[in-house]
Design goal:
The structure is a homodimer. By secondary structure, chain A is of the alpha+beta class. A 7-stranded mixed beta sheet of chain A has the order 1-2-3-4-5-7-6, sandwiched between helices. Chains A and B meet through helix 2, strand 3, strand 4 and helix 5 of A and helix 2, strand 3, strand 4 and helix 5 of B. Chains A, B: Pfam families: Acetyltransf_1. Chains A, B: InterPro entries: Acyl_CoA_acyltransferase (IPR016181), GNAT_dom (IPR000182), YlbP (IPR017274).
Amino acid sequence: MDYKVERLLVNYKTLEEFKKFKEYGIQELSMLDDLEENIIENDSESPFYGIYFGEMLVARMSLYQRGAKFDRYFDPQQEYLELWKLEVLPNFQRKGYGNALVDFAKGFGLPIKTNPRVQSHDFWKAMGFTPVEYDMERDLGENPFLWHPDGIVI
Amino acid sequence: MDYKVERLLVNYKTLEEFKKFKEYGIQELSMLDDLEENIIENDSESPFYGIYFGEMLVARMSLYQRGAKFDRYFDPQQEYLELWKLEVLPNFQRKGYGNALVDFAKGFGLPIKTNPRVQSHDFWKAMGFTPVEYDMERDLGENPFLWHPDGIVI
């Protein structure tokens, strides 16, 4: 599958597309507020990447690069990407859109941490991610899965 | 509604009950491993609190007290409770079990932070919780809601 992954811009069209996704929450509402109050410009870069089918956004994820001092997962502490809100619209699932987004994230060459929904653990394992050993004080309600470019796992 | 909230013990019966809840993940699997490997004793105290209907666990939540130095939500920094995995079994919803658990958590007299599912925001607002102003670096994929015993909100 050869899908084109694009960095999404913050504008009313993108925010309207986001409403189709289940994980629409405070992050999206905050982007809308910032746009309406001119705190950010129309077409600013967002932390979201997505894939369009024609004119329609059908898959997306959010990515954020965290500095080594925030790292509580890799040894030694290092820069890593936090990946969240990976989601493919129902009619487009099982066609490789999710894989394409995760492969794109891996392409930055940094370790990746994600906190997947319980129902998606098999997907993350198939993508080469490993569940951490649970540490309550660190992980609380999370189910972190990690990937490292060198294949190193805790 | 006068429900009795109990601190749950880690034993095979409790862990079997947990399988009925949707949010069964790495935390529960880790407790099972620890029990099987004798890392924790049978009937150890867990971070979970729950309500039984007869013999059956029908509602639960996890609570963890975090020290002030971990606080990134309240001003000044202070001890607070992190609340997660609040869940009521489908046939027992809308009967006040969720309220009873949250009221129990409030009874500790500490501020509370939770990261609710997007679909449950109305419940948390009705319980007196307030959504934070979104800060991407801090909140990433979360939708934090806060409650403070003095009614102070950011």
